[in-house]
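Record format v2
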Amino acid sequence: MAEMQTLDLELGATSGTLPATASRQRIESIALGTAAIALLLLIWELAPHFLPIKAGTRLFFTVPSRIFATLWEMFSTGSIWAPLGVSAAAFAIGLALAIAAGLPLGILLGRSKTMNAMLDPFVTAFNATPRLVFLPLLMLWLGIGMWSKIAIVFLGAVFPLLINTHEGVRNADKVLINVVRSFGASEWDVARLVILPNSLPFIVVGVRLAIGRAILGVVVAEFFGAQDGLGVVMVRAASSFNVDIVFAGLIIFAGLSLIMTGLVRLLEERTSRWRPQRAANE
Amino acid sequence: MATQPSVLSGFIGRHRTVVLGGAAVALFFAAWQAIFLVLPFNPLFITKPSLIAAGLLDLVESGDLFHDLAVSAVPFFLGLFGAVVIGVPVGMVMGRRVRIGYALDPLMTVFYASPLVALAPLLVIFFGVGLPGKTIIVFSLAVFPFVFNACAGVRAVDHLLVNVVRSLGGRERDVYLKILLPSVLPYIIAGARIAVGRALIGVLVGEFFAASEGIGYAITRFADIFAVDRMFACILTVMVIAIALTEGIRWAERTAFPWRFGQ
């Protein structure tokens, strides 16, 4: 709900302001945002010079420059690619399966009230529960390794997709559906002409949420039950007090998450761009 | 949008939904119980509802379940409380002060987007496996939904209202207390629904990692000793609690702010 609300707000803000002030605001927002991050990093970097840090604490303490040096080393030596590849494979397969299952189910639940009533308790239950709770069970069933990872990614990603698709299908304009029906359209035509275009922005939001859940799934699954992957590298580093690598891994996960959600956000703007325009043309 | 007939049909539809949903759940458990009449039953990997019920009864009678739940509840609520107390004011200021919003938005987005559970091993090493470590994991996961929702709530406030209070001589404090806080409340409750889920993840991660008690620890321990029936009992308990919390908040949203559910 909050998700869609912010979407509307962003659209309203960009269309409402004049181009000149908009660009100035944009520059200001980028400058201030960068400055805040830079300031935080600077304080963190300089903290050991001002604050007395106990020898015991120093074991867990690191500064940004060392983290970035570690990150650079991981990429320049290429030691990162193998574990990252394993994590990426689990992420991609899990997400693909989630899309393959979530979209059709979402459309089905959106179109059929009976199916929705019957499956809603399960969807609500699984969506409310942190999927992490099933990890020990999945490890018992699927073993430690790729498949339990894929399963947890799938479970995390499928529900946002299903629920958003369902929401999008349900929100399709009843009048439009009736108009298309009156002109003799079949159920398939209704889906193709009205429901799919209408629910596309919802689906894209679902994909964005699913990406975040999927990355979370990869991290958590690799923390508790896996033999390789970036998460495993991080846990091993943490247990040998190699804090730099933990933070480097976190940065890689966060970076990937931001890049992917950013790309989907672009798609989101692209897919919902026609809405206000069409409203104006009518 | 909500006209009289749609309210009425919604009422009837809801009862239909409850009946169909209940039937589906009952059918699911019945099928689960019955399928082992056909399939071979291996108690090391799978269990059936009758055994889960027995396991649950066992856990309830011995008091283990309530002990574990109580242990897990403390960091859960402390972390959530901290998240509200810190997250809501930060988010409101970010929404009200445009430049502070500009400055903090990217930072918060980075934190929100990054899988902060990844820091759990460090937090556990740093703060120990007990209450402080778990509370901090819960807090760090739960605080961002409050920040972002409070911020979005303030930004959605009608500027006319702010100007009216200002014109009538209201100070910044009045703006915050008389306009922003009441209008942000629905957003905060919506944020709480997301935050509760994340807080549960925090508790579970903390307890999966390293703990000697708590519901998350119970699940991993039963998995380790292949006590599938009691593991399922614990998993179902967590599911029921999670559903009760999120649906409870949803109910609170509907009763307190019905206009947000107009469409």
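Chain A has two domains: 1-61, 62-281.
The radius of gyration of chain A is 23 Å.
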